[in-house]
Amino acid sequence: MQQLNSKSVWLFFLSSFVKWIVIFIFFGLWVLVALVEYIESNGLPGIWVLIPVIVLFFVVPYVWARLTYHFYLYDLSKDCFHVERGVIYKKYSTIPYERIQNVDIDRTLIARILGLSTVSIQTAGTSGKAEGCIPGLSQEEAIVVRDKLIELSKKSKRSGL
After folding, report:
1. Secondary structure of residue 32 in the 3-state scheme
2. Residue 133 gets which letter from DSSP?
3. What is the mean pLDDT of each successive set of 10 residues along the chain, which is 161 residues long?
4. pLDDT at 128
5. What Cα–Cα distance (Å) separates residue 75 from each residue in 28, 86, 95, 141, 158?
6. Residue 72 contacts by C-beta under 8 Å, 6 or more apart in sequence?
């Protein structure tokens, strides 16, 4: 099994950070305001609440990103493509090469800044949505993986005829 590019931690971090912000805005903002008011009413500065909250906003998403990176593995075996991912909930995907219809390389703005790409694999029977993907590959790695997947797909379709 192969691991993603180490810079993919930052892609996962930013994604996790945005999710934490959204959760905080919807659920935690009122708790934070009440906590600051309570602490200030007891004579302490409210900054003592904000510092741990700010630290948590950066530490928790970073730790989650490191774990996501560590547990995201892929493999191009003889017969099929395998992906293993997930920190708490594990997901194992296997895509036989003969089912692969299209392989794309996607590069979002943040991924381009980091020099990374995502390889998306579409199969027969899916409605335009990628059934498999490998985020966080360098541009060179993504091209090699895409070309290898296309080659293995063609080879398996020829041998199956």
Report:
1. helix
2. E
3. 93 87 75 72 70 80 94 94 95 92 93 94 77 92 96 85 54
4. 65
5. 40, 16, 11, 13, 22
6. 3, 4, 8, 83, 84, 85, 135, 136
